[in-house]
Specification:
Helix content is 35%, strand content 37%. It contains five helices and six strands; from the N terminus they run E-E-E-H-E-H-E-H-H-E-H. A hairpin with a 2-residue loop joins strand 2 and strand 3.
């Protein structure tokens, strides 16, 4: 079962939320930078800032750029979701984005999987 919801639009970032079997899947397209980090956090978390549902997959297959603001956004969401005994997984990151995640060590904190399907099954 899935429930689509367009979470937001930014001039360089677009996010769409879908719930699949109780897991929030946030599909991201564009550039994750300082201007779009708040939109990303809002899409990953619920409107009141609580991490509901507590299981979240961020599909980054459409992301072409990620800077430190985006990295910090993922760390913030990871900390909140983990505190609520949930999880966050990153799926489908392009090579350049995955390289940033590996360099800063996010891949040791947040599982980075090749596809959304892999992230949902992990």
């Amino acid at each position: 079962m899935s429930d689509n919801h367009k979470a937001g639009l930014h001039h360089r970032l677009r996010v769409v939320r879908t719930v699949v079997d109780g897991v929030r899947v946030v599909t991201v397209h564009g550039e994750i930078d300082h201007d779009g980090k708040d939109l990303l956090i809002q899409a990953l978390l619920s409107p009141d800032g609580t991490p509901t549902p507590q299981r979240i997959v961020a599909d980054l297959s459409g992301v072409t750029f990620l800077d430190s603001s985006g990295v910090n956004a993922f760390v913030t969401v990871y900390q909140q979701v983990s505190a609520a005994h949930g999880w966050l997984r990153i799926a489908g990151a392009q090579e350049s984005v995955l390289r940033v995640l590996e360099i800063v060590g996010i891949d040791a904190l947040i599982p980075c999987l090749p596809t959304t399907e892999d992230a949902l099954r992990a």
